[in-house]
Write a structure and sequence with these properties.
The chain is α+β, with helices and mostly antiparallel strands. The protein is about 55% helix and about 10% strand. α6 runs parallel beside α11, α13 crosses α16 and α13 packs parallel to α18. Catalyzes three successive oxidations of ent-kaurenoic acid giving gibberellin 12 (GA12), a key step in gibberellins (GAs) biosynthesis. GAs, which are involved many processes, including stem elongation, play a central role in plant development.
């Protein structure tokens, strides 16, 4: 009886093992043998890696790692199985892809527009917009980027926003300090959203802002999720949020078109006016879909990254009193050395915040807010002795570069002093991406963060309720309690004085 029982167990295990092998071979057979037309040489030059299960690929492994307390275990599993090659094949977000983790390869992918084009997953483009920066051609992107970057970057534009940002920051900090316990991150995101709304739409409507911000929160949870369009799944909820965002923006566009006829030439113009007026060399103007997709993208990126990074810089400074003290001393010196008749910050003062700039850069490195960007090979491309086949996605994994101990000593340690003598080599510091598709709002983001920290360091401290609160990594890195705590006023000094 025991013999037959063992035989049955053995047979079941063999069948299970065979079925597992068969399923794990499906993606390899289809995408390497069929899709690559049986070209043996090309197949043999593919990077090492794992295409995973049919349809799902390696997404389960990715989601499991990023929902744990060790997101880097995803890439580490490739390194442990296939060696430190810096380039691995995988199957993610519905496509066969190659993950790039070295500065040299990242630099090539981000800068070679002849060989690579945007390769964001179809699911992501459905959420962010096919006519936004992530979906349009190189020439369209170049034209639209030049058009939209001017109002958010450059000396004149940034100088124009300083006073408005200052007023919002001073008011917010004063209000938060009287509210008791708050979700610090949630309120920071509302603050940065108010700022970007004003810059793009010249509005501070609480009703519109709350409606948009709520839908953006749902949208972002779907961007990194599996593209399962069924009730209950994050992607399904995100698609519904996208529809609501489009409806809100459509009403804003319609209202602006109607009001523009009554406006005088001297009235202030914002990003919405620019998008409505612009036309290319052939006289073509942007249609409503294009305008809305640009707004969806810009308003999302314009408040999410600024809010999260500001929270993390504040968190790290509070956690390291020696760095807090040094950063505060720099801000005290700025106030002390300015002319008596000057009210508020100047762009020159902000650009002279040398130590604070290092603190921000160290936070950008350690957190890596956007840990990956997507490209697609337009042709067969050779990198590091391997071939990236035409049509395969390329995932530029910034997080692996920023946390590489060969590039940054003790990479998991928050240490602004590492930047004292460090000039990062090309491809080793990519907090805002790189190449022709570098984030157009990076200067505005750093401006917002610097202004907030100036006033916070002068007069406030953050007392967290749960200092050991676990961190979640999707859709963005943050404490699970949204940095619950109290903003405490510790000084009556103000740099506006």
């Amino acid at each position: 009886m025991e013999f037959w029982l063992m035989m049955m167990v053995t047979i079941i295990c063999v069948i299970f093992g065979f079925m597992k092998w068969l399923l794990l071979s499906v993606n390899v057979w289809y995408y390497e043998n069929v899709k690559l037309s049986g070209d043996k040489k090309l197949r043999l030059s593919l990077p090492p890696g794992d295409l995973g299960w049919p349809f799902i690929g390696t997404m389960w492994s990715f989601l499991r790692a990023f929902k744990s307390n060790n997101p880097d275990s995803f890439i580490s599993s490739f390194v442990s199985r296939f060696g430190l090659t810096g380039i691995y094949k995988a199957f993610m977000f519905g496509s066969p892809c190659v993950i790039i983790t070295t500065p040299e390869a990242c630099r090539k992918v981000l800068n070679d527009d002849e060989a690579f084009k945007p390769g964001w997953p179809t699911s992501t483009m459905e959420l962010i917009g096919k006519k936004s920066f992530i979906g349009i051609s190189y020439e369209e992107h170049k034209w639209l980027r030049k058009l939209t970057a001017a109002p958010v970057n450059g000396h004149e534009a940034l100088s124009m926003y300083i006073q408005y940002i200052e007023e919002r920051v001073i008011s917010a900090l004063d209000k938060w300090s009287s509210m008791g316990e708050i979700e610090f991150l949630t309120h920071l995101r509302k603050l940065t959203f108010r700022i970007i709304m004003y810059i793009f739409l010249s509005t501070e409507s609480e009703q519109v802002m709350d409606a948009l911000e709520k839908e953006y929160t749902i949208l972002n949870y779907g961007v990194r999720a599996m593209a399962v369009n069924l009730p209950g799944f994050a992607y399904h909820k995100a698609l519904k949020a996208r529809k609501k965002l489009v409806a809100i923006f459509q009403s804003i566009v319609d209202d602006r078109r109607a009001r523009r006829e009554k406006r005088g030439p001297e009235d202030k113009k914002d990003m919405m006016d620019i998008l409505l007026e612009v036309q290319d060399e052939n006289g073509r103007k942007l249609n409503d879909e294009e305008i809305i997709d640009v707004l969806v993208m810009y308003l999302n990126a314009g408040h999410e990254s600024s809010g999260h990074i500001t929270m993390w810089v504040t968190y790290f400074l509070q956690k390291h009193p020696e760095f807090f003290k040094k950063a505060k001393a720099e801000q005290d010196a700025i106030v002390k050395n300015r002319p008596s008749d000057q009210k508020g910050l100047t762009l020159k003062e902000i650009r002279n915040m040398d130590y604070l700039s290092k603190v921000i850069d160290e936070t950008l490195r350690l957190i890596t807010f956007s840990f990956v960007v997507f490209r697609e090979a337009k042709e067969d491309v050779a990198i590091h002795g391997y071939t990236i086949p035409k049509g395969w996605k390329v995932l530029v994994w910034f997080r692996s570069i920023h946390l590489n101990p060969e590039i940054y000593k003790d990479p998991m340690e928050f240490n602004p002093s590492r930047w004292d003598e460090l000039t990062p080599k090309v491809g080793t510091f990519l907090p805002f991406g790189g190449g022709g598709r570098l984030c157009p709002g990076n200067d505005l983001a750093k401006l917002e963060i610097s202004i907030f920290l100036h006033y916070f360091l002068l007069d406030y401290e953050l007392e967290r309720k749960n200092p050991s609160c676990p961190v979640m990594y999707l859709p963005h890195c943050r404490p699970k309690d949204n940095c619950l705590g109290r903003v405490k006023r510790v000084s009556s000094t103000t740099s506006a004085a």
